[in-house]
């Protein structure tokens, strides 16, 4: 596994790349969907921001303040979780989740909302990274697909997740180009 300092550096580079990418799109383009089953670029950005703030970073916070409840079982990583962390990335495949009110991100209200959200995630990652060395890897929170993850693993997951969505960014950009032709 890479260090959290290196993961933070990679994450900042990727998140900054996303911020620069936003410069080339109008709000209309960010909201454009290629089909009913696809997210728009803006929804993809919303997903990255929300999943980091309200799932991954929140779960790090839970690892930082572990439950005193002895009834909380320690969950092992799943096979998929072990594979992802040993590879240091998600496989380069599309992961399709059917549209739902719970999972489908809202369309953005503005580009500024997305830029601010990305900056917020960057700042939270910078604030959390120095605290990770003090946390026991026994303090885990279960991921629905990957099993039990420590604070450090949740942190690494943010970087992997942002890097994985670069593939979707490129695919959605190509769809916009085709629409314009």
Automatic annotation (TrEMBL):
<dbReference type="InterPro" id="IPR024775">
    <property type="entry name" value="DinB-like"/>
</dbReference>
<dbReference type="InterPro" id="IPR034660">
    <property type="entry name" value="DinB/YfiT-like"/>
</dbReference>
<feature type="domain" description="DinB-like">
    <location>
        <begin position="11"/>
        <end position="169"/>
    </location>
</feature>
<dbReference type="Pfam" id="PF12867">
    <property type="entry name" value="DinB_2"/>
</dbReference>
<protein>
    <recommendedName>
        <fullName>DinB-like domain-containing protein</fullName>
    </recommendedName>
</protein>
């Amino acid at each position: 596994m890479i260090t959290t300092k290196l993961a933070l550096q990679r994450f900042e580079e990727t998140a900054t790349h996303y911020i620069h990418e936003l410069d080339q799109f109008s709000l209309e383009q960010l909201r454009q969907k290629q089909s009913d089953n696809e997210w728009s670029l803006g929804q993809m950005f919303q997903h990255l921001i929300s999943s980091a703030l309200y799932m991954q970073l929140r779960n790090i916070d839970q690892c930082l303040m572990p439950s005193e409840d002895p009834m909380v079982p320690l969950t092992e990583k799943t096979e998929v979780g072990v594979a992802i962390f040993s590879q240091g990335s998600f496989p380069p495949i599309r992961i399709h989740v059917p549209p739902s009110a719970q999972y489908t991100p809202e369309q953005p209200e503005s580009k500024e909302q997305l830029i601010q959200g990305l900056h917020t995630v960057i700042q939270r990652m910078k604030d959390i990274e120095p605290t990770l060395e003090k946390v026991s890897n026994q303090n885990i929170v279960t991921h629905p697909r990957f099993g039990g993850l420590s604070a450090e693993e949740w942190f690494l997951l943010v970087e992997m997740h942002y890097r994985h969505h670069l593939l979707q960014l490129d695919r959605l950009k190509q769809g916009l180009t085709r629409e314009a032709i």
